[in-house]
Specification:
Helix content is about 50%, strand content about 30%. It starts with a helix and ends with a helix.
Length: about 110
């Protein structure tokens, strides 16, 4: 059980959002602005970071609609959405959490 808990902590996941919209745009045009969802996977040890880099190569080859960027501690996955749609953001969050859980099993 202790080993399983350590595995799930071996890869951290944080979320962010980027937008070209200013507060002015949002107030006067509403929330229908293009956004970029950002998921950051960070390895807690060198083996996890190495695994994340390998995973990034697979993603770059398979999914052209996402940008994958290496960082010092792991990878960043960016996905552009034409609108700030909360249901799509929720789907993305669920997908990224599932991916993290699957990656933690492999590390």
């Amino acid at each position: 059980m202790h080993k399983e808990a350590r595995r799930s902590d071996s890869i951290g996941l944080t979320f962010g959002m980027e937008s070209s919209a200013s507060l002015w745009n949002i107030i006067f045009e509403g929330f229908d602005q293009e956004v970029v969802l950002v998921s950051k996977f960070a390895g807690k040890d060198p083996e996890a970071v190495k695994f994340l880099y390998k995973f990034a190569l697979i993603l770059e080859g398979k999914y052209k609609s996402c940008r994958v960027e290496p960082t010092a501690y792991g990878i960043k996955i960016k996905k552009s959405l034409p609108q700030n749609d909360f249901s799509l953001i929720s789907e993305w969050t669920g997908l990224m959490e599932s991916i993290r859980d699957e990656m933690a099993k492999c590390v």
